[in-house]
Amino acid sequence: MSVTDPQPPAPDAHADAAQEALHDRIAADSLTTRRDYLRIVATVSGGLAVGGIGVASGILHRHGDSTGAPEPKRIADRIEPGESLAFRYPGDEDRAIAVRMEDGTLAGYSAVCTHLACAVLWRKERGSEGELYCPCHEGVFDARTGEVTAGPPPRGLPKVILVEEVDGSVWAVGTARSGESLVEGFCRQQGDDRPGCPGFGAGAPAHKPAGPGAQQTRSGPKPAERSERT
């Protein structure tokens, strides 16, 4: 008795065509998915790169860049020790933060990180005086000076010049660029002929204060000095 191998069934032309079409469709879908993924990654990475280059090179707007004097703005009726306040100054698009440390020191800064423009927060519980912190890339700034203490930010935070009235109200009256003192920022914006500024006494007419809270700028950079001490 002979044993013969079973004969394979005859190929089904319709089944082969369907299987080939399915394979082509899966391959096309995979290619589309890969292309979409790469396009999304490239777009996001490119956006971050452009934003970083813009902030670092000064193309994008920075706090304190304006040369004119911003209008004084009342930001709070009172800020108690250990409190912070988010506000907008000098423009509605400019995020800022004021902090009152436990020893009474009142300081104001831009709340835009100098690395990639993420929001800066105050962490009161960090250290003896708290810290200004950017959660995006772990940037840390000194709460008393605004200078960089950790992370990738390339420079300190621009400052907001704050003064406090006898009734406890707090006013923003100007800005200072990163690396610029409060007095330098005040004199640049309010006029170099103010008392305490390098041009005072050179014969230029004194500027007249204008707008609500302007009486606080009457004696030149003294309010700025006060905001550093109080």
Describe this structure in a few short sentences.
It comes from Streptomyces sp. R44. This protein has helices at 13-57, 182-190, 222-229; strands at residues 73-76, 84-88, 95-100, 106-110, 121-123, 131-134, 139-142, 148-150, 159-164, 170-176.
> What's the pLDDT, averaged over the residues?
74
Percent strand equals 15-25%
Content-based structural category: alpha+beta
Percent helix: 25-40%
Low-confidence stretches: 1-5, 36-61, 204-230
For the secondary structure, the number of strands is 10
The number of helical segments is 3
Run of helices and strands: HEEEEEEEEEEHH
Give the strand order of the largest sheet, numbering strands 1, 2, ... along the chain. Answer: 1-10-9-4-3-2
InterPro entries: Rieske_2Fe-2S, Rieske_2Fe-2S_sf, Rieske_Fe-S_prot, Rieske_Fe-S_prot_C
Cofactor: [2Fe-2S] cluster
GO molecular function, one term: metal ion binding
Organism: Streptomyces sp. R44
Which secondary structure elements does this structure contain, and how are they paired or packed?
Blueprint (H helix, E strand, L loop, with lengths): L12 H45 L15 E4 L7 E5 L6 E6 L5 E5 L10 E3 L7 E4 L4 E4 L5 E3 L8 E6 L5 E7 L5 H9 L31 H8 L1
Antiparallel strand pairs: 1-10, 2-3, 3-4, 4-9, 5-6, 6-7, 7-8, 9-10
